[in-house]
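Recall the central idea of this unit: under ordinary conditions, the amino acid sequence of a chain determines the structure it adopts. In this exercise we apply that idea directly, starting from the sequence alone.
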Amino acid sequence: MSLTDKGKKEPSLAFGGQAVMEGVMIRSKDHLVVCVRQPNDEIVTKTEEIHSLSEKYRFLKLPFVRGILALFETLYSGIKGIYFSANAAFGDNEEESLNPKEIAVVVAVAVVLSILLFSVTPFFLTSLLNLGGGVLFNVAEGVVRLSFLLAYLAVISLFGDFKRIFQYHGAEHTAINAYEAGVELNVENARKYSRFHARCGTSFLLIVTLISILFFSIMPSADYLVRLSYRVVLIPVISAVSYELLRLSDRYKDSRIMKALVAPGLGLQHFTTRQPDDKMIEVAIKAVKEVESLQKGT
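Accordingly, the structure predicted from this sequence is:
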């Protein structure tokens, strides 16, 4: 980190992450760290070096292509982080891990279920309204898809374990916001920062919904099965475009126009985050510090 004129530390690294069971996972370009609060109140840490396929195949770093890769690599590392955290949080000290094939199966099942629930089912239900195949249909389908997402989040938030995951999600954002603000990382400082973050995957989901409305509206009108196939075949394209827009929103986050555009995504995070307690923030800060140390080689 370097010092600014105001005496604050200016971060030079960009981090992402997610909440896991009783903990937080933070990713940098080359490293992944999972910190979990165990039943004995200690924080256990797992570190791992990341080897992206883009290091071997340079074309995977191209705009739009990189978004598709990022989606699957994020799912892959997320499953690994959740599995480790579940073992650590419930006091299982056995050294177990999923092999790559098992993780690939879990990711594939998750993707298929997501497509069925948030793409195929909304299309089917909207078709029952007899709105034709134009813009009105696509807007209505987008509303149904968002309604499904909000209902899903509302239902799972009723369960205690998921509520705590949402709190750790808030802790992750709080710690990253404090880090990106350049302040000294401690619980007292981090507590002052928002539990919302513009780069969050929740905002990505909203962008995906809006971009899908645009894409499906400009596709040639066709019969029922062809229009349904669009909802599956175009998922990589829509995800890639949405990823680039999410990166753009972060690059110009201080712009008034961009702040207005990302506001709905931040609003959606009211459903996916909860205010964390100090112990949760402590876990998130430890993860951020650890991944920063690894990335800088200190």
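The first strand starts at residue 2 and ends at 3.
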